[in-house]
């Protein structure tokens, strides 16, 4: 079976071509790449011979791209940029104190990012790499060191630790909460605008839990991600029903306040999971212990 990439031109020739096309000069491209002008000319000839078409028009000492050259310039730039970004991503794998941590967008935005200053102060030598994903498990070949998710992971060769139990509270912006506070206690949320996410902890369960007679609960804005729901609630768009863990930073800085005296246990849990082999690297164990300490403190 033949390889489809065998027909591609040499990478060095594409690099030289891209520089010459962008700078409009072989000599300027040579200076940029720190090679001789004859080397640039050779790369361009190699590329044109390979493609069997001219890419530049030579007009005296000037060069101008042909139509084919313009087309290839856009392709070469996009391809080289993709390779450059891909190679740059590999840098994290070579740093001994780099730890790749995977978690959902809501956990990242609402729980992890607000703790970055403390993380840097407590573990100054560790360089965490945040990977956003809703996966609760990863294959052993993946370069993910720690997974923080809403589901446990008990495959052979892994460790999965449940984090402290969570509770669910109705929360609103201070201005909306002040309006709700003026209502009688038994009506505080019976007519309030509601926000919804896709958690198992929905308003139907909460109103049943507190014995409310409210029936119309489906109206209101819906969000597939809890973090964005919390942001909308902080802007006064309605009352959200949210995890104490995820909403902790919003409550701590006064962006959201509780609008009821009653909470309910969360049907969702949070877990810290990893392949056991990852702990051979001390940095992974240090970040693992730090994350557990943070959830315990929260």
> If you compute it from the alpha carbons, what radius of gyration comes out, rounded to the nearest whole angstrom?
28 Å
**Number of DSSP strand runs:** 11
The largest sheet is: 5 strands, mixed
- Poorly predicted parts: none
Q: Residue share in helices?
A: 40-55%
In short:
This protein has 298 residues and is α+β, with helices and mostly antiparallel strands.
Q: Can you tell me about this structure?
A:
It is a single chain. By secondary structure, the protein is of the alpha+beta class. 43% of the residues lie in helices and 16% in strands. It has helices at 11-23, 26-33, 37-51, 67-89, 91-94, 105-112, 116-122, 174-181, 203-210, 226-234, 244-252, 282-297, and strands at 56-59, 62-65, 98-103, 127-132, 146-149, 158-162, 167-172, 240-243, 257-258, 264-265, 271-275. The strands form 3 sheets. It has a 5-stranded mixed β-sheet. Strands 7, 8, 9 and 10 form a 4-stranded antiparallel β-sheet that branches. A two-stranded antiparallel sheet has the order 1-2. Helix 1 (11-23) packs across helix 3 and helix 2 crosses helix 3 (37-51). The chain is elongated, with a radius of gyration of 28 Å.
